Structure of diguanylate cyclase:
Amino acid sequence: MTPEPFDVQQKMVESLLILIASDLSARLLQQEVLTHHLTRRSVEAELEVRNHSITQYLSLLQNLHRVTLTLSKASNLEQLYRDAVQLGREYLAIDRMAIFLTDFEKNEMRGTFGTDPQGNLVSRTEFSSAIPDHPLVNEALSRKDHVVVKENAPLYFGKDQVGVGWNAMIAMWNGDNCIGWVAADNLINQRILTEHQKEILKLFGAALGQQIVIRRNHEMLKQLNLELEARVNERTKALVQANEALEEANQQLAQWSMQDGLTGIANRRFFDMALKRYWEQAVAQGSPLHMLMLDVDHFKRYNDQYGHLEGDNCLKKIASALEVIVKPYPNAVLSRFGGEEFTCLIPSQSVDVVKAISHRMLKAVRNLMISHGQSEFGVVTVSIGCCSQQPTADMEVMCLLDGADKALYRAKKQGRNQLYQYNGVLQHDERVENCVG
Ligand SMILES: Nc1nc2c(ncn2[C@@H]2O[C@H](COP(=O)(O)OP(=O)(O)OP(=O)(O)O)[C@@H](O)[C@H]2O)c(=O)[nH]1
């Protein structure tokens, strides 16, 4: 066999080298594809994890939104604290939660609602103590928008340690004043606290703080309104009472201004008003109106003999006796006209009835048997002038008074202790015996 020429051998070596190079390149490519594939898988896995975490975060955010909405509808502070703990645990994946309120002026904290070691909602309103001077508490209560977390911390229920786990504190604020905090832990399920959960807790604390402030202001306003209402009611009551007292005083005053101070019967002022009203009524109704004018006989002598005080007593007794006679006639107005003179207005009655009333009056005064040493009758008597009119629009009211006055004058002149009538002309009514009885 003749050896291959050199150039042929060289060609073979070249081909071999090319083969080796392409194989190498293929292997390198394969390696690269493999590496690429692995990187893609890991990125994909990472993306999946992140996706899951974001989905969880979004779902927590949605839950937080629902919780906040429910809290905003709480009807009072107690319900707000209760709902916050209940819903916070239920929807924000927290094992245990508790809400504490602070009063920095008094350096006091007090409980509201919390969670027992079995995960039940419990009232902690009876719990109160000084704000603990602990670095974790100090950090939490001095920083806004900040969640303080302590891992592997002792977990408590009241003063008893009930386990170990993470413990988180989020302060709540009214402006720059810390009003309390939310405490949370993982006592029951020991789940780790994710960054997203921490963020949610922070938002929850801020939202709850806001709701507490709104509700407190609302309740303060309600209280103020109640106090205001009570004060207004009190004032109104006092005003009503004052008005009633004033009304009573006015009535008393009106009565006094119409009443004769000595005898207690109506005074001249009342008589004047009654006369005007009765006169107008009589004109309108076409009914009669009668007026009696009574005068105590020889009263000057009486005063002179028995004294002014006895004179006053005598007038009082006469007024009372006349009142008894007039009482059955509710429309009759008996009044003290002035001094020792009385008047009596009698509407709508017949002349006979008025005459009978007058005679009863004469008799009633005599029957008082008030001794009068200076009178021919031996006792105090009165004389009566009576005027009866059928008032019409063209008549003057004064004619009634003038008539009664004329009749009285005549009764006096004719010997006193008797009745005279004036109906246009003077008429003497049968003289009652000049004696008592
Ligand atoms: N005690 C007392 N006396 C009074 C009061 N008002 C008037 N008088 C007196 O009554 C007397 C009336 O006297 P006169 O008007 O002269 O009439 P009279 O003595 O009654 O004589 P006749 O009317 O003619 O019978 C006077 O002395 C008055 O001072 C009073 O309120 N109390």
Notes: Confidence is low (pLDDT under 50) at residues 431-437. The two ends are 200 Å apart (CA to CA). Residues 262, 295-301, 303, 308, 311-312, 315, 339-340, 412, 416 surround guanosine-5'-triphosphate (CB under 6 Å). The longest helix spans residues 6-71.
